[in-house]
């Protein structure tokens, strides 16, 4: 664990962001694959992704023995989630490059990785009490049940629910850019993943059908998806998943095994003189050419 924290001190905790605030996440933005989208300094990490992942591997070395430790569970969820967020940044660039090079197979592979990482981020959030949509909305009921506060009728409570969901999705009752930047369990599936899946599937279908490919999702459509969630009567659980796993949740060790298998930046990804995106696309193109032969 000491080796892990030494690395974190040099990477995620040791490098300033662009303006001292947190990094923006591509997955929290309105979907687009336009060439210059989300390429500014607010979206880039200034530390080595590879070195950071070594730290996560050190942290998770004895995961099976530490799942009773609340502090370890908190850190494990947080660092695995950051690892996946970093990975989505790269797969986002891979998808843009694949579209530019008309590499449909490379696009499909990167798309699957991108959306898969988002779903894992949602799953991980279920192991953190503060990162559940149910907890965010549940604060309303904590507030109204406090005897020091006034009594509220059903309409007032419902408006509180609507406002709570709007704050982390549409932000307002008309289309504007995202401001929430939250990775809550439930919010990911019902808002961000829905937006990105809709956009990426539509783009792929346009590509296959030789239609004009539209490389962004309109603010109106993004708002519609958000507002559908805002007005939904769906109840979000406040129950934190068991880190050891049970019949409903597979546990943090199994999630980590999947991340190790599918999302770590491996030695094979680093080709001298090539970027990660170039390497990934080159491998996809080579596989496509081999299949065609």
What are the main properties of this structure?
0% strand; mainly alpha; globular; 55% helix; 293 residues
Describe this entry's structure for a reader.
This protein starts with a helix and ends with a helix. With 293 residues, the protein is an all-alpha fold. The radius of gyration is 21 Å and the shape is globular. The protein is built from ten helices and no strands. The longest helix has 31 residues, at 70-100. The model is unreliable at 267-274 (pLDDT under 50).
Concise synopsis of the structure shown:
The protein is mostly helical. It has helices spanning 2-10, 49-59, 70-100, 104-125, 133-144, 154-167, 187-208, 219-231, 252-262, 276-292.
Q: Flag low-confidence runs.
A: 267-274
Count of alpha and pi helical runs: 10
Largest sheet: none
List the secondary-structure elements in sequence, H or E: HHHHHHHHHH
In terms of DSSP E residues, the strand content is under 5%
Cα distance spanning the termini? 48 Å
Mean pLDDT: 88
Described by the principal axes of the CA atoms, the overall outline is globular
- DSSP summary, beta strand count: 0
Radius of gyration (CA) equals 21 Å
Helix content: 55-70%
- Going by helix content, strand content and strand pairing, the class is mainly alpha
């Amino acid at each position: 664990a000491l080796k892990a924290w030494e690395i974190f001190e040099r990477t995620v905790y040791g490098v300033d962001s662009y303006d001292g605030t947190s990094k923006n996440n591509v997955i929290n933005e309105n979907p687009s694959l336009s060439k210059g989208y989300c390429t500014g300094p607010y979206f880039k990490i200034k530390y080595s992704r590879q070195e950071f992942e070594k730290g996560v591997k050190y942290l998770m070395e004895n995961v099976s023995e530490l799942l009773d430790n609340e502090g370890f569970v908190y850190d494990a969820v947080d660092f695995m989630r950051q690892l996946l967020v970093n990975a989505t940044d790269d797969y986002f660039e891979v998808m843009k490059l694949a579209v530019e090079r008309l590499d449909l197979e490379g696009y499909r592979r990167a798309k699957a990785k991108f959306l898969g990482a988002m779903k894992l981020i949602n799953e991980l959030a279920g192991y953190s009490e503060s990162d559940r949509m149910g907890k965010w909305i549940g604060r309303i009921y904590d507030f109204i049940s406090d005897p020091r506060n006034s009594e509220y009728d059903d309409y007032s409570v419902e408006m509180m629910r609507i406002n709570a969901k709007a704050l982390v999705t549409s932000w307002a009752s008309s289309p504007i850019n995202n401001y929430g930047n939250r990775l809550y369990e439930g919010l990911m599936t019902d808002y961000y993943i829905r937006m990105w899946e809709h956009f990426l599937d539509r783009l792929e279908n346009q590509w296959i059908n030789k239609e004009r490919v539209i490389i962004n999702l309109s603010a109106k459509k993004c708002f519609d998806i958000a507002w559908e969630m805002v007005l939904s009567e769906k109840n979000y659980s406040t129950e934190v998943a068991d880190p050891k796993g049970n019949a409903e949740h597979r546990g943090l060790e199994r999630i980590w095994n999947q991340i190790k298998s599918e999302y770590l930046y491996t030695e094979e990804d680093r080709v001298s003189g090539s970027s990660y995106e170039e390497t990934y696309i080159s491998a996809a193109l080579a596989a496509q050419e081999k299949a065609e032969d």
